[in-house]
Amino acid sequence: MSSTPLARAIALAALGASIAVPSLAQAEFLKDSKATLGLRNFYYDNDNHEPFVPSLTTPTRPGGYDQREWAQAFRFDYISGFTEGTVGFGLDVTGTLGLKLDGGRGHHPDNNSFMPSDSDGGGKDDWSHAGANAKLRLSKTELRAGNALQPMLPVVLTNDSRVMSQLYDGGMLTSKEFDNLTLNAGQLGHVIGRASDNWSSLSVAGGTRGSNQFRFAGGDWKVNKELTLQYYYANLENYYKQHFAGLTHVYPISDNQSFKTDLRYFKSSDDGKNGEPGYAFNNNGGYAKNSGEVDNTTWSAMFTYSLGGHAIMLGHQRVSDDGGFVWLNQGNVTNGDGRNEGNGGSDFYLFTNSVVGSFVRAGENTTFGQYSYDFSKVGIPGLKASVSYLSGDDITPTSGVGKDLKEWERDERIDYVFQEGALKGFGVTLRHGTYRSEGVSGLNDTDQTRLILNYTLQLM
């Protein structure tokens, strides 16, 4: 039972390659092809400290308050080369399979934050999906279209913080025709989430109706070796329009010293039916000057001093008073029978995208810092560690009146990748987050631990 979905994904890859290659009769298609099998073992412990008071309707403690889940994932990727000629063609295929190792009734919340829910209230025994992207290359421009897209751009990031990562369907164009300039544009229509086995329309956190059109365009200009400028525009139909501007500068002080400046600015406003019945949303659980509508400006500034293996980062982030920051997040979109599809949980391009909290509510001022160390500088390559702290205040209460709210989080992380021997390439990641708040709705005091084991087999 458990091997069937993965076998179908591998068969799909083989079938795609066998159909494409003979018809195109081009050696480069196979010569530059790669195939990998990724293995990920993930243990997730979410200890929610909110006190539970039994009632007639809720006589027992919900599973989400003592969440402990464990799963194994397999991911097959086939990435072809391009056929020869002025216009090159190719095919990429992805197949994923997740297996539940632990996560039964009482330890699996209905929000599907880690794996899909079964009818008994526990996690599903297995879940899977397969997708493919057709691709075309002309000169230094590539077009990809299909249902296995994984964009990594300031206005849309692919979440990979659970057992399986998100996949989007749509099309993306990337061009590097001009030296030091990378242009990106595209349109996305649906997503399959990190903890789901069904496709969903696109939305925002708190949105209950989906949108099937997310368009984006922009570019990265590497002005010189030290300075990079970015600009992107995005539009989620009937929800929001968003402008992003970014600047990254690295000043080399000496051979083993540098000072990095990272500035990010987002301006978001409503679009189309946003605010009307069906397209109003709860603004990520926070205050909105115009209820149900997007109206936000968020800026962030980070400064990092690096010396040898040491790196110290300090920064500040400001969210405007009229509404919280907004990004693609399908947490409230349900299927036909009203069940949560598990398509929520999306990343956004700010440092406050942390282990537990987000720190992007209306009016919030967040000061943050991080210390990290690369142990390769003392003869232990592959070992890295970091600790970070975020403190947010001046959060506007959801009602818009009353005392401003506060929250803080401390995160620790350690990563090790074996560099040689039988375990070469085997990676271990341990993450822990401690979150506390004063009256912030939607999140309770939480201690969260994640243990992740990764290994990738090169098949060809």
From TrEMBL:
Region (Disordered): 104-125
InterPro entries in alphabetical order: OM_porin_bac (IPR005318), Porin_dom_sf (IPR023614)
Extent of the signal sequence: 1-27
GO molecular function, one term: porin activity
Record Gene3D superfamilies: Porin
Single GO cellular component term: membrane
Keywords: Signal, Transport
A Pfam family per the record: OprD
Origin: domain of life: Bacteria
Classification via PANTHER family: CHITOPORIN (PTHR34596:SF2)
Family: Belongs to the outer membrane porin (Opr) (TC 1.B.25) family.
Protein name: Outer membrane porin, OprD family
Organism of derivation: Pseudomonas kuykendallii
Lineage: Bacteria, Pseudomonadati, Pseudomonadota, Gammaproteobacteria, Pseudomonadales
